[in-house]
Amino acid sequence: MWQSLFMKEWLKLRWYFTAAFLVHLGAALKILLDIRQIILMEHGEMVWYQAIHLHTLFYGPLRYLPLITGLVLAAAQFMPEVSGRRMRISLHLPMDQNRMLFLCLLAGLFHLGVLAVLDLLLTAAILLWYFPHELALASLPTLLPWINAGFIAYLGAVHLLLEPSWPRRVFYALVFTALSSLHFAGSGYGWLTPALPFFLLLSPLALLGVLDTGRRFRQGGVS
Amino acid sequence: MNAIEVQNLCHRYKGKSVYEDLSFSVPRGSVCGLLGKNGQGKTTLVNILMGFLKPVSGRCLVLGENSHNLSPSLRKRVGLLHEGHQAYEFMTIAQTETFFSRWYPDWNRDIFYDLVNRMGLSPGHKIRQMSCGQRSQVVLGVIMAQNPDLLILDDYSMGLDAGYRRLFLDVLHDFVAAGDKTVFVTSHIVQDLEQLVDTLLFLDQGRITQTPLKDFMTSFKKFTFTAEKGQVLQKDTVITGLEQRGNRITLYTYGEMDDLKSHLAGLGIRPKDLQQSPMSLEDGFIGLMGKY
Amino acid sequence: MTLNPLSRWAARILAVIAIFFILPALFDKIWTRKSEAPLVFFSPVQKAFVYQKSLGGHQFIYADERGREFDRGAFEDLLPFVYFRNYELRNEGPLELEGRIFDRETIRSQRQSFEIKARDLKGSRPQIALYPLFNNDPGIAMIPFPEDVFRFTEKGMEFINADTNRKDEALSKRFTESLKEKGFTFPATLISGNPTNLKPFDEGYFVKDSQGGVFHIRRVMDQPDIRKTGIPADMGILDIAVSENQRREFYGILITERGGLFLIAWDSYELIPLPSDGFDPRRMDVKLLVNPLYRTLILTGEDRVHATVMDTEYQPLKSFTLPFSQTGSGLAGNVKDFLFPFTLSLESPWQNQASLQLQKGSFWSFGGIVLAMILYLIFLRRKGPFYRNVGEFGFLMLTGLFGLLPLLFVRKN
């Protein structure tokens, strides 16, 4: 049954996911070309110096990309369910409704995760090509908060789409905007690393938090 | 055993009472039509029955379980038709079949394609590109193929032309004929229900009246006559409903011809050409509930 | 359906995290005036400590250790070694102190200011352990950037060339062997130096080996120039701050985990202890001011500045502690505590890196909590026996007034 559910999610996501995949590839290409250009223009050791000691990040284009992708995927997945409250069709299927919503969210998070892995691998590969491996390694904890911001944005957007009442929608919008903005604090590589465990705790909480909003969606029937 | 059982149902919306103390039941194997004017809470009642709205108080049992908390295994036995024949627009016909088939052990692929193929569309056709009538066939196909014990249909006739409505009725008719199936239906085209339902539920101002169709169609009567100029009639205990076009008056009553005659005489009215006319369900509905 | 109450609590916790990060920061931005720590100096004229204290905005007061205030001109006159240019402009004739005459050149060549911030120490900031080892070539005046960076591995010192992104085998071998010859045991546990060419000359790096021995590594004419220092291996070194200064009196300051401060003397590598009583290296900044007559060590913490003046032999002469408050007026602080029983933030003045900070409120927070509970009882309490509200009360006990928001917006109905 979950295969069937995943098929449904994939049907909604496929074009958006493909587009996002291409955009993420494009971002990686931009990073590659940016580094190539600056290394051609300046001395390699100066570029290294900027990257190591001045904390210049050459993968800046990835900063807000997971966040935007999260919002787009959430919309792609849940707009068709919310318009005309079509999700009632799925909610009536013989499966526990929390489990159903949970699986739908997992499907979305999985696609977001694939793009995150793509970002991590391509960034590391590009950095390995031009820099010592320490820089590629340092990109991981630097990218993780941005990726987590994508998960938070995704779950926040689902919250907003499912929530039937406007005041609560505004409240959640503020809460999730605040939460995702935390992920962009500081600058340079590894700034947020000591707080990573805290950040990684936010996503499971947000995932759990959506379930009750799902119930409200289900029961917040018309009139 | 009742397929649907509603006891002392109360519901309020934005502080306004929709019903107070509503009770009725739909026995298994019956086909029950819910009738009521717009704004009387038909959709709300259907939403409660479908489990998408939690009533403020009272019990609402569907196949013996609380409607707002149906177990997955019970949901398997209930087929829902959402208002507007909602379907996943991003799927094709074939994808719709594949998607739903996995959930129902009794899924009958042939029933689905039998209904859908009548339209002559290819399996790769997107739901989004269908007319409302075509979509209704797909949705009907889904519901029929899952072979439910209870069907709850929310305004199935919405957006359908006469042909598709007939088709829908044909299918429902065959479904019910198979036996032990219960249908709970609302429609804004009252006339169609006459061919389908055996039980009527009238919802009016928070109260519900339940009657077998046959009883209603025989005990409720339609009379027509021509009145003298300037005579004005009003509803009362005998005259349940009336329509007046010029001097031509149509009356609805539970009483017999003789009762009516003496009642009119008592009101000082001399009806010309008083006769009982054949009454359709729609006539009866108007006669009972009024036009607005 | 026990999952849905859990789900609501998860949403409430998220809301609390968001609220207690954002709103206190907003409050501070609007109402709290953070002022800089005061600047303390030792006046060779008065033989007393003087200081400049910020009142917020661009207002300062100038005073001495006994609390006597003066204007800025008088303050600067008390510190002729610091404000020598102004001293020259205002006063005719040379500076004469303690029977000695100081001209501009003497002052410039015998002055040094060396500051170490806690946030720049090892472990308080993210740092990839790759460093440029500048080549000392007496024939070249400026310091050109080397084409490579070095790292320490388990087995040796490696140089990676930036043009090829490959290990320079020959150079790596030369340095590794030279290090081994001097008794270095790999890997390195601390690498300290100034990876910048914005300095008058280069003194390479001080590197601690796995046994605790400290080595001074330089690159001269592309050859290793390595010296083992006599710095004891059991000192518990936290970090070494190197400062290339023309005075060439010391290489830098060694900081121990336990809060010891030592100068590393030029050439001899002898350790000169500095008066570091009460120094917490993780939460205090260090400043050493050197002028022709005195040395002043200034330790700046969260709420006090502690300064000790020493003679040129680093013998303490006198010390002074100046308490201060960074948050200024008490009212804003109390209101903040009333509103927020705790605050969350990622930034710390002592770290160049995020660290999750949970700051507790004060006695005033209880007021806010009690008010929150009263409001809850009046407006939000769920019907039914009291125990059904226990969770909510516990929640408010921790979160106070702003905990009402999640309770208001994240509810069953």
From TrEMBL, chain A:
<feature type="transmembrane region" description="Helical">
    <location>
        <begin position="143"/>
        <end position="162"/>
    </location>
</feature>
<feature type="transmembrane region" description="Helical">
    <location>
        <begin position="62"/>
        <end position="79"/>
    </location>
</feature>
<feature type="transmembrane region" description="Helical">
    <location>
        <begin position="191"/>
        <end position="211"/>
    </location>
</feature>
<keyword id="KW-0812">Transmembrane</keyword>
<feature type="transmembrane region" description="Helical">
    <location>
        <begin position="100"/>
        <end position="131"/>
    </location>
</feature>
<keyword id="KW-0472">Membrane</keyword>
<feature type="transmembrane region" description="Helical">
    <location>
        <begin position="15"/>
        <end position="33"/>
    </location>
</feature>
<protein>
    <submittedName>
        <fullName>Uncharacterized protein</fullName>
    </submittedName>
</protein>
<keyword id="KW-1133">Transmembrane helix</keyword>
Automatic annotation (TrEMBL), chain B:
<dbReference type="GO" id="GO:0005524">
    <property type="term" value="F:ATP binding"/>
</dbReference>
<keyword id="KW-0067">ATP-binding</keyword>
<dbReference type="InterPro" id="IPR003439">
    <property type="entry name" value="ABC_transporter-like_ATP-bd"/>
</dbReference>
<protein>
    <submittedName>
        <fullName>ABC-2 type transport system ATP-binding protein</fullName>
    </submittedName>
</protein>
<dbReference type="InterPro" id="IPR027417">
    <property type="entry name" value="P-loop_NTPase"/>
</dbReference>
<dbReference type="Pfam" id="PF00005">
    <property type="entry name" value="ABC_tran"/>
</dbReference>
<keyword id="KW-0547">Nucleotide-binding</keyword>
<feature type="domain" description="ABC transporter">
    <location>
        <begin position="4"/>
        <end position="230"/>
    </location>
</feature>
<dbReference type="GO" id="GO:0016887">
    <property type="term" value="F:ATP hydrolysis activity"/>
</dbReference>
<dbReference type="InterPro" id="IPR003593">
    <property type="entry name" value="AAA+_ATPase"/>
</dbReference>
From TrEMBL, chain C:
<dbReference type="InterPro" id="IPR032333">
    <property type="entry name" value="DUF4857"/>
</dbReference>
<feature type="transmembrane region" description="Helical">
    <location>
        <begin position="363"/>
        <end position="381"/>
    </location>
</feature>
<keyword id="KW-0812">Transmembrane</keyword>
<dbReference type="Pfam" id="PF16149">
    <property type="entry name" value="DUF4857"/>
</dbReference>
<keyword id="KW-1133">Transmembrane helix</keyword>
<keyword id="KW-0472">Membrane</keyword>
<feature type="transmembrane region" description="Helical">
    <location>
        <begin position="393"/>
        <end position="410"/>
    </location>
</feature>
<protein>
    <submittedName>
        <fullName>Uncharacterized protein DUF4857</fullName>
    </submittedName>
</protein>
<feature type="transmembrane region" description="Helical">
    <location>
        <begin position="6"/>
        <end position="27"/>
    </location>
</feature>
